[in-house]
Amino acid sequence: MLSPNVKKNISLSNFTTWRIGGPAEWMSEPRTPEEIQSLINWATNKKINCNIIGAGSNLLINDNGLEGLSLCMRKYKGAKIDKTSGIIEALGGETLPNLARKAANSGLHGLEWAIGIPGTIGGAVVMNAGAQGHSISDYLESIKTLSLQGQLRTIKAMDLDYSYRSSLLQKEKLIVLSARLKLEPGHEKIEIHRVTNQNLNHRLNTQPYKAQSCGSVFRNPDPFKAAKLIEDLGLKGLRYGGAEISKIHSNFIINADKASSSDIKELINLIQKKVNDSYGILLKTEVKTCGF
Ligand SMILES: Cc1cc2nc3c(=O)[nH]c(=O)nc-3n(C[C@H](O)[C@H](O)[C@H](O)COP(=O)(O)OP(=O)(O)OC[C@H]3O[C@@H](n4cnc5c(N)ncnc54)[C@H](O)[C@@H]3O)c2cc1C
Fold first, then answer.
1. Which amino acids are annotated catalytic?
2. What is the spatial distance between Cα 169 and Cα 145, in angstroms, rounded to a whole number?
3. CATH of the domain spanning 7-72, picked from 3.40.50.150, 3.40.47.10, 3.30.43.10, 3.40.50.1820
4. pLDDT, tens digit, 9 for 90 and up, residues 40-85
5. Ligand 1 centroid distance, CA of 56 (Å)
6. pLDDT computed for residue 5 by the predictor
């Protein structure tokens, strides 16, 4: 039986910040936990796999599309904030910029760095998103998850094996329904907004923020910066098809002109080869690829 909220053949390019991605065989954007649960049951009954998408700001989806059910979490949003304790309970689809603003409005210090990361809290918890020396795991107490077999579980942050842009959730596929964060209460709202705005302005000045991108494509290979390695090879502005290494920030690949998923992939391979040939360093992607 067709679930009422499932659509067929929906282009995933509208669900990624690269604006790239072929059709989802099945697609749904649930708004409640009950809907999520019934979609999981529906997919299990049909014996099809489930792809989880947040804001699609770290995803390269194949132009051939994705089989199975693509579950986009961005409408499953909202957050409860306790100004006194600094505890935030955010639903999986709540975005980091929204959360950073809500925290600032409540006088909570801790998420000022998150303002310019256009992902959901679910995606951030999976990716261990971070900036300026902070990561979401520094503020995370626990998450509530739903397995693809329909089991609910609360997992403490300390059990998620966090390290730089890495977590257990990148190996074990669980739906992040919500995250519980602990921030520092009792700060001046004006000061938190000031720092938050300063961080956003810094991004607007140093990144191709308005372009279609996925943020940094490669992880920084300790102790180096991927952007510096790429820039020093003179690769800024290099194009492959419609994909271009940003002239503003060389760890960003932008969709400059109707880039295909393979244009992006080819440019990623080319950068990896040149960096490896010149420095003997294999750059690892931060971006997650789907359907290749
Ligand atoms: C302009 C720009 C700037 C950026 N700057 C930064 C930065 O400074 N620091 C940084 O760390 N990242 C940055 N990013 C990358 C990206 O925003 C982060 O990785 C973000 O955390 C991804 O969240 P998302 O909701 O978009 O996840 P998606 O890209 O949709 O998915 C990423 C992974 O998380 C999984 N996932 C998403 N939601 C859930 C869920 N609810 N439950 C289970 N799994 C889920 C997906 O299956 C996938 O494996 C930037 C991106 C852009 C476009």
1. 165, 216, 286
2. 10
3. 3.30.43.10
4. 999 999 999 999 999 999 999 999 999 999 999 999 999 999 999 9
5. 6
6. 87
Which atom of ligand 1 is the closest one to the Cα of 209? 1
- Structure tokens of 259? 């880039």
Distance from Cα 119 to the centre of ligand 1, integer Å: 5
Pocket of ligand 1, beta carbon within 6 A: 17, 52-59, 73, 92, 117-120, 122-124, 126-127, 129-131, 175-176, 209, 213-215, 288
C-beta of residue 181 within 8 angstroms of C-beta of residue 125: no
Confidence (pTM): 0.97
CA atoms within 13 A on the CB side of 11: 6
| Per-residue pLDDT tens digits for 149-176 | 999 999 999 999 999 999 999 999 999 9
Right CATH for 79-206 from 1.10.3720.10, 3.20.20.70, 3.30.465.10, 3.80.10.10: 3.30.465.10
* Residue 209: closest CA among 118, 103, 130, 284: 118
Q: How far is the CA of 292 from the centre of ligand 1 (A)?
A: 19
